[in-house]
Specification:
By secondary structure, the chain is of the alpha+beta class. The protein has one domain: Roll (Nuclear Transport Factor 2, Chain: A). Strands 2-1-6-5-4-3 form a 6-stranded mixed sheet. A hairpin with a 2-residue loop joins strand 3 and strand 4. The longest helix is centred in the first third of the chain and has 17 residues. It is globular and about 45 Å long. 17% of the residues are buried.
């Protein structure tokens, strides 16, 4: 069934699940291609904004070096109106940095999506932050 005829929440929840699989499998190019629109911006904490496809590819290709062992994204709310939608959720992650002990993190995230002319949804703004002190 074409994405434009399915409920946006269902499409976005599937996109989030695929995103997690790609990140866990270190398939960063596939994740960027399937998840982000060409002009998307990612705003990770304590980092300058990452804007556009090439910058996103560069950023995500470096992430496996951070030792990501586990990642879970749990959408808690998805809302849409017309060609825009947003997803709010919670995340947990487990990292083993090269020079440090295991680090468990948890927090929240927000992603804004836009439906393209071809009917497919893509993220245009993406951010998260930790609930840890």
């Amino acid at each position: 069934m074409a994405e434009e005829t399915r409920r946006p929440a269902a499409v976005i929840e599937e996109m989030t699940a695929r995103r997690v699989r790609h990140i866990r499998d270190q398939e960063m190019d596939a994740m960027v291609d399937e998840f982000y629109d060409d002009d998307a911006v990612f705003m990770p904490p304590n980092h300058v904004e990452v804007r556009g496809r090439e910058a996103l590819l560069g950023y995500w290709r470096e992430r496996p070096d951070e030792g990501l062992l586990e990642l879970e994204l749990e959408p808690t709310h998805v809302e849409s109106s017309g060609a825009l939608a947003y997803e709010v959720g919670r995340y947990t992650s487990l990292l083993r940095p090269r020079h440090g002990a295991l680090l468990q993190d948890y927090g929240k995230y927000l992603v804004v999506y836009r439906r393209r002319e071809d009917g497919e949804w893509r993220a245009v703004a993406d951010t998260f932050n930790s609930d840890r002190d």
